[in-house]
Amino acid sequence: QVQLVESGGGLVQPGGSLRLSCAASGFTFSSYAMRWYRQALGKERELVAHISNDGRMTTYADSVKGRFTISRDNPKNTVTLRMNSLKPEDTAVYSCNARYYVQNYWGQGTQVTVSS
After folding, report:
1. E-assigned strands of the chain?
2. Which site from 21, 24, 25, 91 is most exposed, i.e. has the minimal number of CB atoms within 10 Å?
3. Rounded distance, CA 48 to CA 68, Å?
4. Tell me: the pLDDT tens digits for 42-71?
5. Under a CB-based contact definition with an 8 Å cutoff, are residues 110 and 96 in contact?
């Protein structure tokens, strides 16, 4: 059974940091590219960060470049999103996604709220 379980969301003040984790199971994690998406209330889902299956390549949305870092630990089947210098506009539900050709898996998401 495929599972992607996100954790680490919460309420943080502007300028603060959070670390999101996604624990994967039920598939060959090291074969899959991993992504973090976010969706704010009333807005379309946005791709935030991508990491290749071997971790050698990462890409980021312009809105988070220099503030967010995606990483993965293949032996532990986890992908992490470190978020620094958070802004109110980063408020959204963050979801991890696993992709390998036509295989596409999603987690349930974790809420991140940036507010004073």
Report:
1. 3-7, 10-12, 18-25, 33-39, 46-51, 58-60, 68-73, 78-83, 92-100, 103-106, 110-114
2. 25
3. 9
4. 999 999 999 999 999 999 999 999 999 999
5. no
- Rounded distance between C-alpha atoms, residue 17 and residue 114, angstroms: 10
Q: In percent, how much of the chain has pLDDT > 90? A: 100
Which two tokens mark 65? Answer: 């470049």
- C-alpha distances (whole Å) from 56 to each of 33, 34, 49, 71, 74 are 11, 12, 13, 9, 12
Whole-angstrom Cα distance, residue 54 to residue 61?
A: 20
Residue 105: what pLDDT?
97
What's the CA gap between 57 and 76, in Å, rounded?
A: 19
- Are residues 83 and 68 in contact, defined by beta-carbon separation less than 8 angstroms? yes
> What is the C-alpha separation between 55 and 78, in angstroms, rounded?
11
CB 98 within 8 A of CB 104: yes
